[in-house]
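The instructor's notes for this session suggest beginning with a concrete chain rather than abstract definitions. Hand out the sequence below and ask the class to guess, before any prediction is shown, which regions might be ordered.
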Amino acid sequence: METAADFKAKGNEALMAKKFSEAIEYYTKAINLDGANHVYYSNRSAAYLSKGEASNALEDATACIGLNPGFAKGYSRKGAALHALKRYNDSISAFMDGLAKFPDDKALARGLDSVELEQKGPSFGVSPKVNTMFGPDMMAKVALDPKLRGYMSDPDFMTKLKQLQNDPNCIGTMLSDPRMMEVFQVMLGSQGLQMKTGQQVRKEQTAKKAAATSAPSTAPTPAPTPTPAPTPTPAPT
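After discussion, reveal the predicted structure:
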């Protein structure tokens, strides 16, 4: 007689093989046998999201967190499902809730950066300079990068690259895939540009607030007719 763990293992195999409906069926069988196991809901949430059923993915992610609030991946699942539903503020809140508990979790940080970038980015077109990043030589640049090269054996990844070449404006909708975020960062680097992550910006803001708090309350008497300092060039975001 098969156990819940057996059905989970079969679900994992199906999910890795991109047989999402089959994976959902196996995870459901696991849940029917052991409905208190948060991992089964987390995995089924991933399968639902991969299948494009974001509402079901959100429901399972919420159940996962309810069963185990100390499971970091539950917050990633919830944030990703809300991101897919384009509920950007709710998605950001979910990732922030997770980072409050697990500040060093890379998946949560990547998810937060992705949704913040999409929330701000798709409202305007890609600039001409950025547009050139996704030209005919993009595939060659991806192939030259040791890490990105390994993704090129995945048909789904290659489909996204070709779609990006045809329509660079769709980059915002692809950044929930960590691999496409890496492509974007590599392409930015090839143009001599650099993108700060949301986490970096938040650290800078925290440091500025701390510096302002520790500054003396009484300002020194200014020297007569001081020469104004030049305004610094703002860093790219």
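Then share the key points. The two ends are 56 Å apart (CA to CA). DSSP finds 14 helices and no strands in the chain.
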